[in-house]
Predict the structure of Spermidine synthase.
Amino acid sequence: MREIYQAMSKSISGQPSSPSQTETAGTDSAHGRSMIWFAATILLGAFLVFQVQPIISKCVLPWFGGTPAVWTTCMLFFQLLLFGGYLYAHVLRTFCNPFAQAVIHLLLLSAAALVLPIEPSDAWKPTGSETPTLYLLWMLASHVGLPYFVLSSTGPLVQAWLSFHDNSERVYRLYALSNAGSLFALLSYPFLFEPVLSVSTQSSMWSLLFCLFALVQGYVAISLFRITDDSTTATRSGPAGDSSAPAIASTSISANIQAAWIALPALASVMLLVVTNHVCQDIAVVPFLWVLPLSLYLASFIVCFDSPQWYRPKPIAAVTLAALALIQGKTLLPGSIQLIAEACCYMVMLFGACLLCHGEVARLKPGTDKLTQYYAMLSAGGALGGVIVAILCPLLLNNHAELPFFVALVTALTFLLFFACKTWNRTEYDWAAAARLKYGAIVLMIAPILTMAFVSNNRTIASQRNFFGVLKVREKPLGTCLVHGSTLHGMQRYAPNQSQPTTYYGHESGVGHVIKALQQQHPSLRIGIVGLGCGVLTTYGRPADHFDLIEINPAVIDIADRYFTFMKDCPSQMTRHLGDGRLVLERMPDAKFDLLVLDAFSSDAIPAHLLTRESMALYRTRLAEGGVLTVHTSNNHLELSPLVHNLSRDAGLESRMLEGIGDASIGTTHSTWMIIAAPGHAIFQAPSLAAATTATADELRDAPLWTDQHHNLVSVLRLWQ
């Protein structure tokens, strides 16, 4: 970055960059348009571009069940709009003179400011009948589309404006500065903004900063009025100097190089999204786990575009291959550190793959006269990666096969690049050496894919994939299981035990004890269940009982009907509701449940909006007199029980926790259930609940208290247990 600041000093002092620009530089200094204004515009714009992504994603995440696909779809939207912004900058630079560019962009800045603020209102809450991907894209376009479009054009457009005065390779270093601003925005969000500010405050603050950005960039745009066509032509055709010569002469750009400008960023984008999906599915949909992979992705741009000396392909490839090997051998590690080790290896692998992709594309950058075309093609590659992961893979695949496929592809390409690079300190290649190893690379790519295909299809009856993830129906020795990602969501034993409750819902589980105790007290019960699974809880139904089954994922309902008979065998009346549990309950103002069961907190996705002060108040209004609320908090990576205890106390309710041991011989598993009711409720006196425990003073003191505006999954995350 040293050259950028040297250029700033020259510009501020009025010293011209080259003899041919003496008159223009002097004019710039006289009117105060120095490099500092270009840098400020780049930094602020980049900060806002990547600060809005976690803000708007967190706004809409609760409305779509907390699924990782929300983040993937948001990323697709932002990548498509980024391409649109870069293309707009290219068209503006190519077909308009500086005066027209300034006028058009000032009008666009003004229009973008008029659509603020960005937070969607409650009127946008989905009803459950929409196509989630299309509805989410439309919602994002309506609220952040125009501001984000303007912001996304900032990098290439401001660099293009700077090239009117300096056409050396220094202009490209502003791209590293842009990514530095983006990186700061991402890293600051989970630590500085999310824990302190409410979602609405974050939205308002972002809107105010956008107005400041509009003023700063507006000042830079207005200064274009003084640039003449003659000076622009002279600057573009003037010498750049030997020390800053572009990597590729504009006249020598081949179709293969232009294809690389798209393909390499596309591969990096795909790896970003598939790794983010994998980490979120195995841990939790936490902003920090979105931010970390994206931060590494941006850091690779900073390293590769700041200076060619930072890019060393051979050691980068070696570290990447080592991380890939450790991923394959994760099962050899102790169970207590497998999760952390796997996540770290995936992050190292992602960073290495992005460094290699972006390092090569930076090595192939053209002269500044092709700058906007170059950036437009880079952003097209990023958008292509988003389309592949967010749209094509869910349409074409019924599982998450894209992860092993692209990991295998990266392994093969990294292997070839490692042997093609001649030395550890320079980017010199012997492609003939790589060609001799092409069959070894093919074996490296195919072997893990075949292994994965054989293992994943073993005893798998059916598999469905949609916006909410991958559902698989598998055969096990005791019965048929429903698996969502890596989490078991229920099992039905083979005849003659097909009507016995299993997994987390056995007779000795917390919910099993509660249902039996309530049935002894009431001849009929109205039971609400948020989270259908395969319908195991309906095994407790009596002819006089009524179940309201609420499920956000239509594929779950389809699989429960086709491959399980729990609901068919149940003698109770049943009403099904498609949609998010909280939104459905809000649309049932007259419902009064004797028992309300929350069973939506798996390790795949945690809908935090179901565990807030406002949601607890809603549940209380939906309970009949003497009604009971049970919450299933079994989870591999999140400690939810203290949070539920604290929410119950805040709502004036009494809570107990009951852990079921499980019995593998009858298909039941360990489970943790929270039992919540009015203080002194008779349910707590039931002999079967004698083992239920209350919260300790220490638990209540340290437990978080989530609200709709303040909830942070990091506060309940446990990675080492």
User: Anything to note?
Assistant: The chain is about 55% helix and 10% strand. The first strand starts at residue 460 and ends at 466. The first helix runs from residue 2 to 13.
